[in-house]
Write the structure tokens for this entry.
Amino acid sequence: MSNDMDLREDVRRHYAEAAHTVIAGQGAACDCRHPGTTCSEGGHASGPAFYDALTEGGLPEAAVLASLGCGNPTAVAELHSGETVLDLGAGGGIDVLLSAKRVGPTGKVYGLDMTEEMLALAIKNRDDAGANNVELLKGYIEQVPLPANTVDVVISNCVINLSTDKPLVFAEMHRVLRPGGRIGISDVVADNDVTPEQRAERGTYVGCIAGALSFEEYEAGLRAAGFEDVVISATAEYVPGMHAAIIKATKSSSVVAAPIDAPVARELPIGQKSCC
């Protein structure tokens, strides 16, 4: 097994364990910066702390407890009624459900995740919340199972840093967005003078540190994929030189992408492989 495959399996295993923690009623799964503990055990801030919208209520408790992110991309993306949204790395579904509320019954939200346990949890939370405008997909963020020009907004919450092929993730985001579409992402980003070796010394890959891009690398990667108006803003420092950040960018409205006939993956029985 290649190193990239090993890393992907480590990530999958970690988030499967996080889902089991929530399902077993053992409290909130800890955020990705502190793998191996629950937030209540480790005393760490958890994903729900980033969501003022949680005070509105109406979200299943399991969706709140399963939040593992480093920000609130639903607020970053400024979602509007009727829009179609794709959440990369949907986890337990908190960002999917909040997006569903914001886009309303005329909108649509896709949540993509590779981890069967998280996907099952997200489906349950979707059903408990009665979110009829949500569809959960099984697959990888490097191979989004949607056709080109499908969505208005791509969001993601502390997931892209976990990919072993970030240029492909950026290319896939650009492909599935309609011309004029945008991204609103929360992620971990390194200072430009922090080398990849130093990032690995400061945290693990599955802990969202070792695999993080620098500010310059992130912007260059998005621009290479065709994005414009790239803005990356640090919001908090987790460890020296490593920050939670908000990333915004747009796909040019003048782009006319060639149609790509990609199959749309539907919800699958747990244990069954997806088509993509």
The longest strand covers residues 177-190.
